[in-house]
Amino acid sequence: MDKKTLRKKYFALRKQVSNSAIEEMSLEIANKSLELPIWGKTNYHIYLPISEKKEVNTEYLLHILQGKDKSVVISKANFETMKMTHFLLQENTVLETSAYGITEPKDGFEVSPSQIEVVFVPLLAYDTFGNRVGYGKGFYDRFLAECETTTQFVGLSFFPPEEKILHENIDIPLNYCITPEKIFMF
């Protein structure tokens, strides 16, 4: 299936999910993440969800990371350069909501993508090969391409995978995707 069709399909599917179901499934996804062989690392990148887009609430994952005393990195998107800058999330990090509804750090201690060992990746859809569909701006594809080849990419989704997504050579596949019911390994 092509990406444009998948975006429409999954935006429609997300609209049908209640806020209470999002919270319940997000907690299940966070708990399932504990089964992954990723917890011996130090530097983890996590996205902060856009609630209007009914994304997986990563607050539960964030609590796990903080409880395990991991370094947590979050990003700030620049829509002029179409790139993200990554900052260490600290107690004194000031967060603000961008014009696009994205909660981001105002500034802080910058972290290179080469230092990040695990990335929790937002997505709309993914397939049985680990190919993902995002919102179409390519922010995460550019970011993931800057990471080391050993970096683990973990998608988070409320839904099971599609059979096959028509993808492009610039697309970076996932290593795992966590749903409330199952972990998919690619």
From TrEMBL:
Cofactor dependency: Mg(2+)
- What Pfam families does the entry give? 5-FTHF_cyc-lig
The reply to whether DNA repair figures as a keyword in the UniProt entry is no
Please, which domain of life does this record's source organism belong to? Bacteria
- Enzyme's top EC category: ligase
EC code:
6.3.3.2
> Which UniProt key words apply to this protein?
ATP-binding, Ligase, Magnesium, Metal-binding, Nucleotide-binding
Reaction equations catalysed: (6S)-5-formyl-5,6,7,8-tetrahydrofolate + ATP = (6R)-5,10-methenyltetrahydrofolate + ADP + phosphate
Q: Which SUPFAM superfamilies match?
A: NagB/RpiA/CoA transferase-like
NCBIfam families the UniProt entry points to = MTHFS_bact
The molecule here is called 5-formyltetrahydrofolate cyclo-ligase
Query: Mind giving the lineage of the organism this protein is from?
Result: Bacteria, Pseudomonadati, Bacteroidota, Flavobacteriia, Flavobacteriales
